[in-house]
Each structure stands twice: as structure tokens, then as C-alpha cells.
Design a protein that fits this description.
Elements: H1 41-50, E1 54-56, E2 63-65, H2 67-86, E3 90-91, E4 97-98, H3 100-105, H4 107-110, E5 119-123, E6 126-134, H5 139-149, E7 158-167, E8 182-192, H6 195-216, E9 222-225, E10 237-245, E11 250-261, H7 263-268, E12 271-273, E13 279-281, E14 283-290, H8 292-301, E15 318-322, H9 330-346, E16 351-353, H10 361-370, E17 375-379, H11 381-386, E18 388-393, E19 399-403, H12 407-431, E20 434-436, H13 440-448, E21 452-457, H14 461-471, E22 479-484, E23 505-512
Parallel strand pairs: 3-7, 11-23, 15-16, 15-17, 20-21
Antiparallel strand pairs: 1-2, 4-6, 5-6, 7-8, 8-14, 9-10, 9-22, 10-11, 11-14, 12-13, 17-18, 18-19, 21-23, 22-23
Helix pairs in contact: 2-6
This protein binds ligand 87F.
Ligand 87F binds near residues 136, 168, 187 and 288.
């Protein structure tokens, strides 16, 4: 196959996922992914995930997170955990199991979710006296204890978070990271004396979610308010960050930050005595982001060569590959690779060398490209001679020869440029999909063109239900994604695209994950 430099490389017939001795290395054409992102997105996504992010499991909808993806989760976790600690949120851990009685208590809002709750009914061969539910979320697990722990205004605010797994037995088609039956998330649950404090926190958390997507995953998102139909039914209002996948024309809810109001306080009797000695109900929030973030990142950035990881979340930011020729000073090249990794690591850059002698350089290039490492450094005889290294960017393929003297500064700068460029490219692609419409006919045309639709809306639940009904099809119905906090001007007299009534706001619509 033609290597990145255009030269013919010797490669392993089995491709990067195989693994053969050098002597077996043969010319090969079908290295890498078997489908293109634009041709079969679903298959493309699944293949990309399988390149070390995910392993499929023998229970449908469950996936193994391999170190390559788990490291991304951990990097985001480190950021978010430190940020919420600055906000005085404390971590805790509640049990995985929920007693049926407590789950029942929340009947009203759980009703719609009930089919997704998984139950343990046996221990060994005998039936349990009382079946036990597995948490799909932890309101019912935690709030009885909030009721116990909160007595007076001095116990407030109570701000807890837990990093855990949850189980939702979904029946619609599972997708790695995006929709799985078990997933990892953090769930924050906070209680305040006043609504003002709760309102403020909702937005502070939402801003952290925006930063995870935009600063870490280089994925542009829209911050906004969920409609009455799409909000968390148990709460007062739901805010979210929404991403968009141009290839499928689908929106994807990136994370949610809810103000629960006093609904749960009423149900679980979470009261406090205020300064005047009167009993009041607390105001609550809950907020979560999950491993879905990783799926959105993969879908946004990946290309026909595989994954592209943003430097800020890549567990390996730079891979250093020796390119020895027949009569070259192989040991000298290897030593230069090791020294390069040492210098980069010393400077806090996550760098690794690939000195395996049973793979050709070309095979290694493709393999690390498939895994999405943001920057590759090649060191060959000429580089050694000139005291330089060659850098190759994963995001745009640009190559540069840089003097070893300024290696660290150069690489740091390159990683920043890659991060920024990935975000810009993703943002441009998303912007190209946004379509402002005014009428139902325009709406349908835009929907069929897989657009992210911005439409003037009357904000009535009935109308959203009607739009869903009128757009129902094999690929799912259109619904609201969110009403962006940043609203374009809505001229007086603008009418709702669906009902013809006066429009109240601009709202994003589309099919979604
Ligand atoms: C599935 C089964 C049972 C979502 C479910 O978003 C219950 C539920 O309550 C359920 N799927 N939800 C809503 C979760 C709301 C809320 N929980 C805390 C969050 C953030 C974290």
C-alpha cells in the first residue's frame, strides 16, 4: 500500500489487527477500514469503535471499554471532578440496588421508564422473596437519605456526586457509547434553600458540560432549554448541550442539567427549618454526562483512516516511529526515538515509541492512524543526520521537519493547533448543516436533507406531538432538540412553522439519537 509519504511500504497481509513476522510481510491493498464514513456510516462507526475502543460482548447492548477508550473517560473525569470540587460538590457512593418500594414512590415519573428497569429475581436457583431493581438513575436511591440528612438551613446546600454505572434495558437498537444497556456516568444531586441558588448551579454545570465537549472533545455543542415534552418529566426544567452528527443528520443530547424544583422534595419529604423556624421544602438539581460523550467524539472526528483523537483527551498524543533503512544506523535511530519520547514526556506530553521489529513503518503508520493518535513523529537516517524529526499531523496529514533543539515547543504548539483545528472543522461542518426555515414545507425539505433545523415555534406541547406524528417513519420522528439560549432575533409577527400560531422562540429540530 502507499504509505503516508506516498512510497510503497511493506505491510502485513493481515493488516494492523493481524500480526505477522517481518519475513511474511507482503504488499497489501485492503489495509484499514472496509467501508467509508460517507458510504455506510453505521458500519464505519462500528469498525472504528472496534479498533481498540470497544469490544463487543455476548449480551446485546453491553460493551467492553478497552483501555484506549477508558483513558479518554478518565481524562474527562479528572477535569470534571476537579471542577465540581471547586464548586464544593462532594463525591459519594450509593448502592447499585433499589428496593421496589422506593422505586414505586416515584411512580409518576418512573411510569414511562418502567419497561427499561432491570430486575434481579434470583439468588442461585431460588427466587428472591422480593425482587430488587438495578438503578437506572439514583433519585430514588439517594433522596430518602437527603430527607434524613437535611434538617435545618445549616445542612444546606447539600451537593453530592457519584461516578458510577447505571442500567437501562433499552430495546431500540444499541450503539456503542451512544446507546448501551449499561453505561458509565456521573450523576450530581444537589439541594438548596432557594430556587436562585439552584438556577445558578444548573447553568454552571451546563457550562462545564460545554467545556468537556468543546475544549476537550473538540465537538461544538448548543446550550439550550428542553421543551416540555423532552424535559425530564420529574423536574421543573431541563437544560442540555446538544451535538449534531452531519453524516446521519441526527442531533444527539450530549449532557443534561436539570432543575428539579420541589417535586422530589415533596415526594421524599426533603424539608428544612429556615432561619425563622418555619419548615420549607428544598430546591433540587440533578445533572449527568455519560460515556456517550466518547461516541459523539468518534462520530464527529473519525475519517476513512479511522479514529482521530483530539490531543486533550488522547492517552497517547504523540507516537514516535523509527524508520530504519537497510544499511542505516538502526541503533542510533532507536536511541533518537527513545530520547525524543523522554524529552516529550518530561515536558508533560503523552508520548510513546513504537519500536516493534515485527511490523514495517508503513504498517505502524496505518495502525496509529487508525487508533487516532494526533501526531506522529518519524525518525529516519536523514533525520538523524540533520538532527531533526519529521512530524505528521493526523487531522490534516501535514508534514514538517523540525529541529530536535526546539522539539518540545514545536510539538506543544502543534498539539494546540490540532486541537483548535479539529474544533473549527467540526464547527464548520455543523454550521453547513444548519437551516433556518419558516414554513412546514421548508421543514420537510430540510429534514429530508438531514439538516439541523432552526425554526420559529409556538412552544406548545400539542404541536410538538403533532410534528412527531406527522414525521414518523422508519428513521424515527423529528422532535425538538433544544431552544438555544442564544436566540436569533424573532421579528414581531413571526408565525410557528407547524401551527401557524404566533411564534414564541427559535428552536432546533431534527431526528435524534
Ligand atoms: C430509565 C429507567 C428508569 C431516564 C430512566 O438526567 C428511570 C429513568 O429517571 C429516569 N431513564 N431517567 C431520567 C434521569 C434523570 C436524571 N437523573 C439524574 C438525569 C441526570 C442524573
Amino acid at each position: 500500500m502507499a504509505g503516508p509519504s506516498g512510497k510503497k511500504e511493506k505491510v502485513d497481509k493481515a493488516g494492523p489487527s493481524g500480526g505477522k513476522k517481518k519475513k511474511d510481510v507482503k504488499k497489501e491493498t485492503g489495509l484499514g477500514l472496509s467501508v467509508k464514513k460517507d458510504e455506510n456510516f453505521g458500519e464505519w462507526y462500528s469498525e472504528v469503535c472496534k479498533h481498540e475502543m470497544i469490544e463487543y460482548y455476548d449480551i446485546s447492548g453491553c460493551y467492553i471499554l478497552r483501555p484506549w477508550s477508558m483513558a479518554i473517560w478518565e481524562i474527562m473525569q479528572t477535569f470534571f471532578d476537579a471542577e465540581i470540587k471547586k464548586m464544593k460538590v462532594k463525591n459519594c457512593y450509593f448502592p447499585l440496588f433499589v428496593s421496589p418500594g422506593v422505586l414505586e414512590k416515584e411512580k409518576d415519573h418512573i411510569e414511562g421508564f418502567a419497561p427499561e428497569v432491570a430486575w434481579v429475581t434470583k439468588s442461585g436457583k431460588s427466587d428472591l422473596e422480593v425482587p430488587i431493581a438495578i438503578r437506572p438513575t439514583s433519585e430514588t436511591v439517594m433522596y430518602p437519605y437527603y430527607s434524613k440528612w437535611i434538617r435545618g438551613h445549616r445542612d444546606l446546600p447539600l451537593k453530592l456526586n457519584q461516578w458510577c454505572n447505571v442500567v437501562r434495558w433499552e430495546f431500540s437498537n444499541p450503539t456503542p457509547f451512544i446507546r448501551s444497556r449499561e453505561f458509565l456516568w456521573q450523576e450530581g444531586h444537589t439541594a438548596f434553600a432557594t430556587k436562585e441558588e439552584a438556577d445558578k448551579e444548573v447553568l454552571e454545570i451546563l457550562e462545564l458540560y460545554r467545556r468537556i465537549y468543546e475544549e476537550y472533545l473538540a465537538v461544538p455543542v448548543v446550550k439550550g432549554m428542553k421543551s416540555e415534552n423532552e424535559k425530564f418529566a420529574g423536574g421543573l426544567y431541563t437544560t442540555s448541550v446538544e451535538a449534531f452528527i452531519p453524516n446521519t443528520g441526527r442531533g444527539v443530547q450530549g449532557a443534561t442539567s436539570h432543575c428539579l424544583g420541589q417535586n422530589f422534595a415533596k415526594m421524599f419529604e426533603i424539608n428544612f427549618e429556615n432561619e425563622k423556624g418555619e419548615t420549607e421544602m428544598v430546591w433540587q438539581n440533578s445533572w449527568a454526562y455519560s460515556t456517550r460523550t466518547i461516541g459523539v467524539m468518534i462520530m464527529t472526528h473519525g475519517d476513512d483512516k479511522g479514529l482521530i483523537l483530539p490531543p486533550k483527551v488522547a492517552s497517547v498524543q504523540v507516537v514516535v516511529i523509527p524508520v530504519p533503512y537497510k544499511d542505516a544506523n538502526t541503533q542510533g535511530i532507536f536511541d533518537a526515538c527513545t530520547a525524543t519520547v523522554a524529552a516529550l514526556s518530561e515536558a508533560g506530553i503523552r508520548a510513546e515509541e513504537d519500536l516493534r521489529d515485527n511490523y514495517s513503518p508503513g504498517w505502524k503508520y496505518s495502525n496509529w492512524e487508525m487508533k487516532g493518535v494526533p501526531l506522529r513523529i518519524e525518525i529516519g537516517p536523514r533525520d538523524l543526520e540533520n538532527n531533526q524529526v519529521r512530524t505528521v499531523r493526523r487531522d490534516n496529514g501535514v508534514k514538517e521537519d523540525i529541529p530536535r533543539g526546539s522539539l518540545v515547543e514545536h510539538v506543544k504548539e502543534l498539539l494546540e493547533k490540532i486541537q483548535a483545528n479539529m474544533y473549527e472543522v467540526a464547527k464548520q461542518k455543523r454550521e453547513a448543516c444548519v437551516e433556518e426555515i419558516k414554513t412546514w414545507d421548508e421543514f420537510i425539505v430540510a429534514l429530508n436533507k438531514k439538516k439541523l433545523i432552526l425554526a420559529p415555534w409556538c412552544d406548545e406541547e400539542e404541536v410538538e406531538r403533532d410534528v412527531k406524528a406527522r414525521t414518523k417513519g422508519e428513521t424515527g420522528a423529528a422532535k425538538t432538540l433544544c431552544s438555544p439560549f442564544e436566540q436569533p432575533e424573532l421579528p414581531e409577527g413571526t408565525l410557528c412553522f407547524a401551527s401557524g400560531k404566533p411564534a414564541k422562540k427559535w428552536t432546533y429540530w431534527g431526528r435524534s439519537y
